[in-house]
Write a structure and sequence with these properties.
2 domains; about 10% strand; binds zinc ion; Rossmann fold; six-stranded parallel β-sheet; binds 5,6-dihydroxy-NADP; 15 helices; single chain; alpha/beta
Length: about 375
């Protein structure tokens, strides 16, 4: 096991009815900005639950955060914060709303050009407004981590930053809020959380038994519960298990002391930036291709996953590794997410542009061995056609 430092200060209020805890979590004298997306919270009753819990407190609202949130929209929220002297941000939504809120919180206290927050991957951030979250989509883990991903629409750059200053103070996770999700977003969330575990697990062994078995428990849970969420959208236990799995998948615990891959995520971000594919869709396309390309280096962990999680009964290691890749692809497809670029009307002509962006970002040494170069990415994308 590698050395690590672990820190996660976000308080979680989990379960039905927990939106009520906003009453006590947000200071009485705070001037709050409720940040939300395209309006789903106004149709499914979540906005009303939030405003009931905020009764007696001062709040304004800022809606219109896009999926894959735009930098340009975030800057409008920053203006409002400055004119209204807002001092507390409450994100109500999925990963996009929470990520946007993190960027807004940092930008509101940043003196220079706010794009520097992204250019420095967050190291320029020296402070941020306090953030609370009401999560409505189980997927990203943003509710309990220091990461934010924003897109500059003008240049199609989708990039992330990390800062401890933007960790949510608290997050409310009420599984019932996810009942109203469209099937496609349920599937995206299942694929995203599953892939988060895999990015930290399908690398090479470092004898990290706790992390490995923790990963395997999350993978088994998501495999079992994901398809049920599509069939029984209002099954509370299914939603609860998925929601907690998604949070645990990317709250820093799994990555302690182990190598991480993340090539799939970094390539996927470029695909979303250019073509608007959902985050979950990009992962379902790219991950089987990365694994196929890197099967020799990843074989030991693919075999462990194949045997312990997917219950593959073969004895030949190569066969187990290949079956593990194909069974993972099948799981994504069973969730309703297509796994080939051609399924999204994309062909080999996209490859040059993706490589150009990765080079511009200096993402030229990807994967757990930092050995996936732009030339390798081209080969990986050919495998994904
Ligand atoms: O905009 P609204 O009206 O809220 O509708 C959203 C949106 O259209 C809808 N939705 C959310 N909750 C709902 C609901 N509809 C009905 N009922 C509900 N309860 O779902 C749509 C997608 O929402 P979005 O927030 O975009 O989805 P998700 O949570 O999957 O977030 C994706 C974003 O997070 C980033 C992705 O790159 C992408 O930009 N990620 C953030 C990470 C992080 N901060 O750590 C890590 C991830 O790897 C990921 O990159
Ligand atoms: Zn993700």
């Amino acid at each position: 096991m590698n050395n690590f430092s672990f820190y996660n200060p976000t308080k979680i209020h989990f379960g039905a009815g927990q939106i009520q805890t906003l009453k006590d979590e947000i200071p009485a004298d705070a001037k709050i900005l409720i940040v939300y997306g395209g309006g789903s919270i106004k149709k499914n009753g979540i906005f009303d639950q939030v405003t009931d819990a905020l009764e007696g407190k001062t709040f304004l609202e800022f809606g219109g955060i896009e999926p894959n949130p735009h930098y340009e929209t975030c800057l409008k929220a920053v203006e409002l914060i400055k004119t209204e002297n807002i001092d507390f941000l409450l994100a109500v939504g999925g990963g996009s709303v929470i990520d946007a809120t993190k960027f807004i919180a940092a930008a509101a206290q940043y003196d220079g050009n706010p794009w520097e927050i992204i250019e420095t991957f967050g190291s320029a951030v020296k402070g941020a407004l306090p953030i609370g979250c009401v999560l409505t989509l189980a997927a990203t883990g943003s509710e309990m981590n220091p990461t934010s991903v924003v897109t500059r629409a003008e240049t199609q750059d989708k990039l992330f930053f990390n800062s401890d200053h933007v960790r949510p103070l608290f997050s409310v996770l009420d599984p019932k809020t996810t009942y109203s999700l469209p099937a496609k977003q349920v599937a995206n969330g299942v694929v995203d959380s599953y892939v988060h575990v895999l990015e930290q697990y399908i690398t090479y062994p470092v004898n990290a038994k706790v992390q490995d078995r923790f990963s395997e428990s999350l993978l088994s849970t998501i495999l079992e519960e994901g398809p049920k969420a599509l069939k029984e959208p209002e099954n509370y236990d299914v939603r609860a298990n998925l929601m907690w799995s998604a949070t645990q998948a990317l709250n820093g615990l799994l990555s302690t002391g182990v190598p991480g891959d993340w090539a799939t995520h970094l390539i996927g971000q470029v695909l979303t930036g250019f073509y608007g594919l959902d985050h979950g869709q990009t992962l379902a396309i790219v991950m089987p291709a990365v694994w196929t390309y890197k099967v020799e280096q990843k074989k030991q962990k693919l075999v462990q996953y194949g045997q312990r999680v997917l219950n593959i009964q073969e004895t030949d290691q190569d066969l187990i590794a290949h079956q593990a890749i194909e069974k993972t692809r099948t799981f994504f497809e069973e969730m309703g997410i297509a796994t080939r670029l051609s399924d999204y009307n994309l062909d080999e002509t996209i490859i040059a542009g993706v490589i150009e962006k990765l080079e511009a970002y200096q993402f030229v040494q990807l994967g757990e061995h930092a050995d996936i170069t732009p030339t390798d990415v081209a080969e990986i994308l050919k495998l994904a056609l």
